[in-house]
Amino acid sequence: MNTEEFQAIYIMWLRQMKRFIRSRSRLVATIVQPLFFLVILGSGLRSAVMPGMVGDDYLAFLAPGIIAMAILFSSMFTGISVLWDKQFGFLQEVLVAPVSRFSIIMGRTLGGATTALIQGFIILFIAFSLGIPIAGISGLLLTIAFMVLLSFTAVGFGLVLASKLENFQGFQIVMNLIIMPLLFISSAFFPIATNPDIPNIIAKLSFFNPLFYAVDGIRGSLTGINNVVNPLIDFVIVLVICIFMLGLGSYLFSKSEV
Amino acid sequence: MGDRILEIIKTNNLTKKFNGFTAVDHISFSVREGEIFGFLGPNGAGKTTTIKMLTTLLYPTEGSAELSGFDVIKKRDKVRKHIGVVFQEPALDTELTGRENLDFHARIYGLDKDNRKKRAAEVLKLVNLEGKKDVLVKKYSGGMKRRLEIARGLMHYPTVLFLDEPTLGLDTQTRRAIWEYIKKMNKEEKTTIFLTTHYMDEADYLCDRVGIIDHGKILVIDSTTSLKNAVGNDVITLSCSDLDELGKRLGDESWIKNIKQHDTFLTLGVKKGEEKIPVVFEIARSLNIKIKSISVRKPTLDDVFLHFTGRTMRGQEERNTGRESRPPIFRSRRR
Q: What φ, ψ does residue B293 adopt, rounded to 5°?
């Protein structure tokens, strides 16, 4: 790869950063929503006893789920925002430039991942300040690795949607019919696999939910309690899903004509 | 390869089909170095599709095209380096400033740091946007956006600049200004310009040569002057009580360069039109035909379009929206 391709990746990334910093309403909205979940829901139910939950700190259970949710939403938004570029014509400017589509995707993915990680870290710090327990330094590093993988995966998924959907109505439907159910059976908010009240079929289904492994992995590496699968196994699964999703997203994007 | 390429764009039977509909139908033409070349035709004639093929955004179904000697299919990256494109719809990032849009473009085209700065200042000056360069593009007016896009298209010193309907949706004053900028960059930067338009006056004012395109086919390519001369030095338009009769009679007159009968009027291409009006009256009276109105004027590209397609652009626009309902009689009159 020559320097021009790196230039292209860099400027695509820089553009995402500038847009992110300038759209303050988006910045506030994407941080405030998970914050409400964490602070209000988490504090309100902190001493509640959840079926299937180990320990008595619901906030510590919830925090990994909210971190995953914040990263998921933010990254998907980046992927899907290709639709905006398409509608506002800017995509043509990018596609007619003498750089490979791969660099365009790379820049966009890195940009989206960076913004998502910034948001993820903000939630993480707030969770720390609310006093959730930490398993250790290596666990923390693994958590960050999970966050990176999850954001790449979600950008990839957003790119897949952007190349398949015609408009934003479709995006709303996908959010309500796919993302929300996936989030609910990902154990982000409450235990699924270990929960005696959950129908067996749903508990089984949750193991086919890619999001489950990301949430479970973050939980296992960050707090070390209440995870169902070994975090390292989670990591391998999430890595495979990430490569697949990013590959599919790039492929579909490179096929798209303006 | 030794001699200079004088033909910057060259196409050979270039064709694009979309699900059986032929948008561009075996067109072959060339654009010379340094000229302003225009594609004139109604909406849906195939102008934008042609531009998208020449700028590597669409693959041709058939045929080939070369740009600065590079094949648009096989040498996409080389072609892309040599062209600047201003699309029909604005393609700016409105959340960035004018300067940042230019910088984005310069980097993605691989300009180094010094060049980026120098060139941005140059092109901003060319389109008179120096004072607005640090304003977010979403605060720009339509005309300013267009100017910025033209400036951006020039950033990487392209050999050819493509302008797809450069003044669509702009007011008269802004259009004039854009025209001046286009002329200026053609002259000062020696950039070859390929533009499409459905405005007659635009093609007339800007273009050295014009290709008239309709239903995906090029009907004629020539300089605007020759095109107008083909119609006649003057055009007489008249309506009368019996178009068929008068038309037939006038068809025998040798001084009439060409004659066309339309739905409600006749057009005659003649020399010294004002002297011919009495003659026409004379002939009409001898046939007992009453002339309702008559006018003489210099031919415009409207007349040229009418001459080659048998209808006005406006008529064509309406027809394009209701393609199926085209009356069969209209078809026969085209030839």
A: -155, 155
CA dihedral A170, A91, B22, B20 (to 10 degrees): -30
- Helix (H) or strand (E) run with residue B60 in it: none
Tell me which DSSP letter residue B136 carries: B
Q: Residue B106: helix, strand or coil by DSSP?
A: helix
CB–CB contact A96 B104 (8 Å): no
What tens digit of pLDDT does each residue of B179-229 get?
A: 998 998 899 888 999 999 988 889 889 999 999 998 899 999 999 888 888
Evaluate if residue A190 carries a pLDDT over 80.
Answer: yes
Q: Which residues from A are below 8 Å from B96, CB to CB?
A: 15, 18-19
Dist CA B2 CA A247 (whole Å): 45
More confident: A239 or B299 = A239
pLDDT of B334 reads 35
First to last CA, chain A: 25
Residues counted in chain A: 258
The 3-state secondary structure of chain A, one letter per residue: CCHHHHHHHHHHHHHHHHHHHHCHHHHHHHHHHHHHHHHHHHHHCCCCCCCCCCCCCHHHHHHHHHHHHHHHHHHHHHHHCHHHHHHCCHHHHHHCCCCCHHHHHHHHHHHHHHHHHHHHHHHHHHHHHCCCCCCCHHHHHHHHHHHHHHHHHHHHHHHHHHHHCCCHHHHHHHHHHHHHHHHHCCCCCCCCCCCCCCCHHHHHHHHHCHHHHHHHHHHHHHCCCCCCCCHHHHHHHHHHHHHHHHHHHHHHHHHCCC
What ipTM score was computed for the predicted complex, to two decimals? Answer: 0.82
pLDDT attached to residue A29: 80
Chain A closest-CA separation from residue B291 CA (Å): 52
Confidence label for B313 from pLDDT (cuts 50, 70 and 90)? low
Cα torsion B309, B312, B314, B318: sign: negative
Cβ of B87 within 8 Å of Cβ of A88? The answer is no
How close is the nearest chain A Cα to the Cα of B67, in Å?
A: 14
Q: What is the mean pLDDT of residues B118-139?
A: 91
Contacting A residues, span 72-111, partner chain B, CB-CB under 8 Å: 88-99
Query: Residue A258: is its pLDDT beyond 60?
Result: no
Task: Name chain B contacts of A15, Cβ cutoff 8 Å.
Answer: 93, 96, 104
What is the residue type of A58?
A: Y
| φ/ψ bin of B272: left (φ > 0), alpha (ψ from -120 to 50), beta (otherwise) | left
Question: What local confidence, expressed as pLDDT, does residue B331 receive?
Answer: 34
* pTM of the model as a whole: 0.80
Into how many domains does chain A fold?
A: 1
| pLDDT digit string, tens, across residues A72-88 | 988 988 888 888 888 88
Q: B265 vs A144, B187, B246, B260, CA distance in Å? A: 78, 42, 11, 9
Torsion of CA A51, A56, A60, A63, to 10 degrees: 40
- B318 pLDDT above the threshold of 80: no
Please give the pLDDT value at position B319. Answer: 46
Structural contact between residues A186 and A209, judged by C-beta atoms closer than 8 angstroms = yes
Structural domain range at position A186: 3-255
- Cα dist. A139→A225, A228, B316 in Å? 12, 16, 70
